[in-house]
Specification:
The chain has 676 residues and is of the alpha+beta class. Among the domains are: 270 residues, Beta-galactosidase, Chain A, domain 5; 97 residues, Golgi alpha-mannosidase II (Immunoglobulin-like, Sandwich), CATH 2.60.40.1180. The strands form 8 sheets. It has a 9-stranded antiparallel sheet. Strands 30-29-28-25-22-21-32-31 form an 8-stranded parallel sheet. The longest helix has 23 residues. The radius of gyration is 25 Å and the shape is globular.
Length: 676
């Protein structure tokens, strides 16, 4: 349990950084470093005095005594407050960063071994927060093949004194993990809980004042949240930590960021996304991103040069912007060269033709896997965590082992150079591997931290530095590693894996709370129809995962029109505030049940689009109430398929809405433009 110090006056300390909205301050008290965030506009704490995340070195709590602090202006205009202390031969550092344009603080730490003997970090918190009482906690689950088939479900729970602490698992998990795990983001606010409105289409969401938090760690961690009589508390800690730090080396404590918001959970998501686009994510690759894409997985692993050259020609006719060869292009998993029978001339002919047609060329790579017969596994059997099937017949590699990691980096860079690769889909089973095999080179007691920070993170960071033009998509046998470290490393990510239309909408609906819309890839596996295509055009990259060479002219024409509509709307959706109107709650029989609706509103509130869907069942008509518009302004409203136009104010649309009629497995696209 975290401790509380309501008597601390952190405003009186000299260690503070501010912008126009918030002040972040820190102070040493009785061997601990305390911090808080004050909302200057409201004159109240957003984060009450909280101790900075605890760490234990060789089982002993690291103490902060004799703290010194410096302030450093960064090239991006931010300011970093850097606090340091010495503890038994270790140097403790805690940094706080604040920008002039957002009410956000990012904070991280390190433990440097300044002694002559190795030390071991045996426990480390990522965050420890104390907030005013009366908080509601909101989070969104990530993907699992086996836990439940209602993907990216949202949860809102009040924190009440005397009740058991909530525990939420975050980070990289195998898709076979049979329990819930969450996106590494949460929000807390005061006011009424939304647990009822989330289960009813007719109750407007509640609003309040609170914070958002994104955790930058791909390994497995646990967030615990509870209430005492006078405060709410949240603590996140790294699982299974036993990290050896050699003399002169450092242990990096994962970063997290905290932002202040006022409003409903849509506002919590929007302020997170605007901050992340400015200060967390890699820049978008170009002004058109997210792109319309093709992926060869519709053909399975039985792909070859002639077939995929024909597919690329079809893609050009459709308006596709990226062509990706999925699993099956390589000699075998872990032997990263073109399959000699399928692609006797290598992959360069495919890349050249894609480039000639104005497309980028990409590859799917399960980079932490290797077939036991692959040369790397034969030459370095200790690089395998075990020899059992882990992913399509391949075993797992230990990326935390430096020689293995360096080999992989060299292989990826060679692929980029040899085949003119512009895009990678990283895939595999649990990117932060678990190791219990004493015969492996992997650390058996620190696999979680090492295989994350010194494994998959280091690989992607290094390749991006060496080949910065390459775009990276995260896939981990589904959206099973949706963290803000992932979002710092990758340009986009899958949500649900290659599943049917309704599940895909569930993924976009839930993931668009914690992450920007471009981090909501849709793998479209269903045959193209007006319903399935319309279901795929809201969010991030639209990826066709079908046998496009076998499509009829009607299917080509429908898809071509849908891609054109996607391109017309993508900039609006990409930059918009996402309004969650009706959740897709029930993935009945894989087809879904009833209605769902999601809305995008431009930052200036002059333009909006609402996507409305009906799966099987439910009433034939429903009232749709768009929100987030200027209350006193008139909007021109157009229902595309019904060919109905009207004019209404933002206030009347939110209160009274409009009646929409759709047949089963149908959809409607509603556009709203500020009237002149």
């Amino acid at each position: 349990m975290t401790s509380t110090r309501s008597d601390l006056d952190l405003e009186s300390t000299a260690w503070r950084i501010s912008n126009d909205r918030i002040t972040c301050s820190a102070r040493e008290v009785e061997g601990q470093l305390w911090w808080q965030i004050i909302d200057r506009a409201r004159g109240r704490p957003a984060i009450q005095p909280s101790h900075t995340p605890h760490a234990r070195i060789d089982q002993r709590l690291a103490a902060w005594r004799g703290v010194s602090a410096t302030q450093e202006l960064q090239p991006d205009g931010s300011t970093v407050l850097r606090c340091r202390a010495e503890h038994d031969g270790a140097r403790l550092t805690r940094c706080f960063q604040i920008w002039p344009d957002f009410p956000f603080v990012r904070t991280w730490g390190s433990i440097e071994n300044c002694g002559e003997a190795a030390l071991t970090v045996t426990d480390a918190e990522i965050l420890s927060l104390t907030m005013p009482p009366g908080q509601n906690l909101f989070h969104v689950n990530q993907f699992s093949w086996v836990y439940r088939n209602d993907f990216f479900s949202q949860y809102d729970a009040p924190l009440i004194a005397g009740r058991t602490a909530m525990e939420i698992r975050m980070g990289s998990f195998p898709s076979s993990y049979n329990g819930p795990s969450s996106c590494a983001w949460f929000a807390m606010r005061d006011g009424e809980s939304d647990w009822q409105s989330m289960r009813s289409d007719d109750i407007a969401p509640h609003a309040g004042y609170g914070i958002v938090c994104g955790i930058e760690f791909n390994g497995k961690s646990r967030l615990r949240a509870w209430a005492s009589s006078d405060a709410a508390h949240a603590v996140s800690a790294i699982d299974d930590l036993h990290h050896r730090v050699a003399p002169g080396d450092s242990f990096e404590v994962p970063a997290f960021f905290i932002g202040v918001f006022e409003g409903d959970w849509d506002e919590a998501g929007y302020i997170t996304q605007r901050f992340a686009e400015a200060h967390v994510h890699p820049p978008a690759p170009d002004e058109r991103h997210p792109w319309a894409q093709y992926n060869s997985w519709g053909y399975g692993q039985e792909i070859d040069e002639a077939q995929q050259l024909a597919a690329i020609e079809r893609c050009a006719q459709l308006g596709v912007e990226v062509a990706v060869m999925d699993l099956g292009w390589a000699a075998q998993i872990g032997e990263w060269r073109a399959h000699p029978r399928k692609f006797p001339r290598g992959l360069k002919p495919l890349a050249d033709r894609a480039h000639e047609l104005g497309m980028r060329f990409g590859l799917h790579i399960p980079l932490a896997q290797a077939n036991v017969n692959a040369p790397v596994a034969q030459e370095h059997p200790d690089w395998l965590i075990h020899r059992h099937e882990d992913y399509f017949g391949a075993a797992p590699l230990c990326l935390g082992h430096p020689p293995c990691r360096e080999w992989l980096i060299d292989q990826i860079v060679r692929l980029i150079d040899d085949y003119d690769v512009d895009y990678f889909v990283q895939d595999g089973e649990d990117m932060v591997k678990v190791c219990h095999d004493a015969g492996s080179a992997c650390s058996t007691d620190d696999h979680n931290y090492t295989n994350s920070v010194e494994g998959i993170d280091r690989v992607i960071e290094t390749v991006r530095r060496l080949r910065p033009h390459v775009v990276w998509e995260n896939c981990e046998d589904g959206g099973c590693m949706l963290t803000y470290k992932m979002a710092r490393l990758y340009h986009t990510t899958i949500t649900v894996d290659n599943i049917a239309t309704y599940a895909t909408r569930q993924g976009v609906y839930g993931a668009s709370y914690p992450f920007s819309p471009r981090y909501s890839v849709r793998y479209m596996q269903d045959d193209p129809t007006p319903y399935t295509l319309r279901s795929a055009i809201f969010g991030g990259p639209l990826i066709l995962m079908q046998r496009v060479t076998e499509w009829s002219e009607e299917q080509m024409a429908q898809t071509r029109a849908a891609i054109a509509e996607y391109k017309r709307l993508r900039a609006l959706v990409r930059d918009a505030k996402i309004i969650h109107l009706i959740p897709p709650r029930n993935n009945l029989e894989g087809k879904g049940w009833g209605w769902d609706a999601i809305q995008a509103v431009s930052p200036d509130q002059t333009r909006s689009v609402v996507m409305v869907y009906r799966a099987q069942g439910g009433p034939a008509s429903k009232v749709i109430r768009p929100r987030g518009l200027k209350a006193d302004s008139l909007y021109d409203v157009a229902l595309t398929d019904a060919r109905v136009t009207m004019q209404a104010s933002g206030a009347s649309l939110a209160k009274d809405g409009m009646v929409v009629s759709i047949s089963e497995f149908g959809s409607e696209l509603i556009e709203l433009i500020l009237a002149h």
